[in-house]
Structures are given as C-alpha cells and as structure tokens.
TrEMBL record:
Homodimer. Residues 41-181, 214-358 form the SIS domain. This is Glutamine--fructose-6-phosphate aminotransferase [isomerizing]. The active site is at K363. Catalyzes the first step in hexosamine metabolism, converting fructose-6P into glucosamine-6P using glutamine as a nitrogen source. GO terms for molecular function: carbohydrate derivative binding; glutamine-fructose-6-phosphate transaminase (isomerizing) activity. It comes from Halorubrum cibi. GO terms for cellular component: cytoplasm.
C-alpha cells in the first residue's frame, strides 16, 4: 500500500497536492470571494465573537499558529494559540463570546480533548478541525470541519499539516466575510493562494532530487537550526520538529530575529541554518539574520520565492543552497515547508532510521 515508496511518510509527502485538492474541493467560490466549509455557525454568533482560542499539540499546534497569524489580520479578532496541555479556561473572560478551536488530526489526542472539555464547562462554543470522522473530538464539540486529507499512517504528520492550514485559512475567510471585516478583494486574493497550493507544492516535490542531495551533504552536522519570521516562524518550528522526530538529530526552530538573543552562541560551521525567505515571512529582514550566521561559518539553506525563471530570488550571495518556492502569496511558507519535510525524510533515510515508526512516539497520544 506504500505505492512503490519506501515509507508511508514519503508517500504522504507526495500525496499533498491530491490531499489539498480534496480539502478545498467544492468549498471555494472564487467569483464571490466566499467559502462554504459546511459549518453551521449562526451569523449572530460569528458577529458576537471577540476572541478565538486555538488549542492543539505538536504539529497541529504549529498549524494553529500559522492560522492565528492569518486570523488576526483577516478576521480582526484577537486570536491566541495554546499548547493544549497548558490550557486553562476559567471562564474569566467572556465565555459566550469566545470560540475555542481544537486542531487535531486524529481527533483522539487526550490533551486536546481535555482542553475542549474545560472550555465547554466554562460555557464557550467549541469547534473541531480534524481529519477523522467519528472521532471523539467530533462527538464532543459543537461543530466540526473536516480537513479531508485521507488516512495518514506515518507517525510524522505531513499532509495533514498542509490540509489543516488550508482548512483554517478557508475558515478564516468564512468568518472574516461573515463579519464584514474581510474585503472582497483580499478574500479573493487569499482564496487564489489556496487554489494555487496543490500545483505550487507539486513544484517543490518535483525538486526532490536536489533536496535529497542537500540532505546527504549535511546529514552529519552537529545540529540544525530552522529560522523564519511571521508565517515562517511556525514553519521553522515544524521543520525542526519533523527532523528531530525521524532523524533523532538535534534541531531547533526560532523566530529569525531571536538568533542574536542567544541561539547564535551555538552556531558553527557544523550547524546548517535552514531559513525561510518567502512572501509572508519578511524575507528582507531574515536575510540580515542569515548574514550573521554566515559570518560565523554556518552553511545556509534558504527557501525563497521563485522569480519569473523559477529560480530563488533571494540574494544568493548569502545562501549556500537556494530552493525556489513557487509564488503563492500568504501560503508560500506552507509550500516551503514541503522542502523541510523532504529534508527531514532524506536525512533520516540516509541514517537508516525507522522513519514511519520513530522510537518512543505514537501516532495518537491518548494519555495526558
Ligand atoms: C508530529 C506529530 C505530533 C502530532 C500531535 C497532535 O509529527 O504528528 O506532534 O501533531 O501529537 O496530534 P493530533 O493532531 O492527532 O491531535
């Protein structure tokens, strides 16, 4: 069932364009700039919401962070993201005007379920964004939206991350339009980014040979640092998580601007820095941080918006490896994430790790 791939993870990485087409199928009206995500949130309720709280763990939490950046700008509602195991909703703020969104691929993560139970007890409305029909989270929340990524077998979440971000973007457009806070023009622009995602990701997948070469070249490094700003920050965190899970190497993700506030002390010529330099992640500012690490001898692998010729447009003087990312607006960091997935996969494969079943980890974590 791995369809010729050595691992489910690689198969699922390659399934992303198809998974995303399913995620968005029938949900976008590009002409109207509207979205139908089959969720029955009454419009009076949507109007009255003054806070959105996202709760999730691991990769789903990073999808939540990506969405929160977008939500704050699109919907103009205060949005927070919490690690579900840290969530305490005591009803102190106005529970009736708070929408609590659980992002969970499996729908069975114990920490996320208990966060949702707390929110419900305090009187908040709850919404699940999940991949799993009939899961516990679906039964326990007021509404649910399915990401439709298809079953994911590899322990490392890949295609579900992409489909979660796409679904949350659609949800944000839906809520933004319903509240009147999102203009027609901006809605169309965002929906166009979503529509372009499958082909853009295919463009990255077509460069797998290059990223395999890069992964082999740097596989024996001491540690790996992923950096990005804004929408690039959750992608940096996700890139590092993927690499540590399956290769067992030390990897960390930082907001690029934080490098100089500590992590720079760890940077040497044996610590490659993987930098996001795309639209939506303030590439010009991140390039300044890249210069700082390069001056310390670190190899820099940069994923940057492609120019008209399909080559990376960032200032290549500062990059040891340039990876071009097809133009996709606000979703470009999500497209670039596929390079980080392939990088993690090929580093782990080079080391002969049991990629689909990394030590000590389970696909769904049903204990708190
Ligand atoms: C990482 C990974 C985990 C899950 C986390 C939440 O690759 O798979 O970090 O994202 O355990 O799982 P769900 O989304 O099922 O709640």
């Amino acid at each position: 069932e791995k369809s010729g791939y050595d691992h489910y993870m690689l198969k699922e990485i390659h399934e992303q364009p198809r998974a995303l087409r399913q995620t968005i199928s029938g949900r976008i009206d590009a002409e109207d700039g509207t979205v139908n995500v089959d969720v029955d949130l009454p419009s009076e309720y949507v109007d009255s919401v003054d806070e959105i709280q996202i709760v999730a763990c691991g990769t789903s939490n990073y999808a939540g962070r990506y969405a929160a950046e977008l939500l704050e700008s699109i919907v103009d509602v205060r949005t927070t993201v919490e690690v579900a195991s840290e969530y305490e909703f005591d009803g102190g703020r106005d529970p009736w005007r708070t929408l609590v969104v659980a992002v969970t691929q499996s729908g069975e993560t114990a920490d996320t379920l208990s966060a949702i139970r707390r929110a419900k007890r305090a009187g908040a409305r709850t919404l699940a964004v999940t991949n799993t029909l009939g899961s516990t989270i679906v039964r326990e929340t007021d509404d649910s939206v399915f990401i439709r990524a298809g079953p994911e077998i590899g322990v490392a979440a890949t295609k579900t991350f992409a489909s979660q971000v796409a679904t949350l973007t659609l949800l944000a457009v839906h809520v933004g339009r319903a509240r009147g806070s999102l203009s027609y023009g901006r809605a169309r622009e965002l929906l166009e980014s979503v529509r372009r995602l499958p082909n853009a990701i295919q463009g990255v997948l077509d460069r797998e040979d290059r990223i395999r070469e890069v992964a082999r070249e740097y596989a024996d490094s001491d540690a790996f640092f992923f950096v990005g700003r804004k929408l690039g920050h959750p992608v940096a965190l996700e890139g590092a998580l993927k690499l540590k899970e399956i290769s067992y190497d030390h990897a960390e993700g930082f907001a690029a601007g934080e490098l100089k506030h500590g992590p720079l002390a760890l940077v040497t010529e044996d610590t490659p820095v993987l930098a996001l330099l795309t639209d939506g992640s303030r590439p010009g500012e991140t390039l300044n941080n890249v210069k700082e690490v390069q001056a310390r001898g670190a190899p820099v692998i940069g994923a940057a918006t492609a120019d008209g010729d399909g080559e990376a447009a960032a200032d290549s003087t500062y990059l040891d490896v340039e990876l071009p990312v097809p133009a996709t607006g606000a979703l470009e960091p999500l497209v670039a994430n596929v390079y980080w997935q392939l990088f993690a996969y090929h580093v782990a494969d080079e080391k002969g790790r049991p990629i689909d079943r990394p030590r000590n980890l389970a696909k769904s974590v049903t204990v708190e």
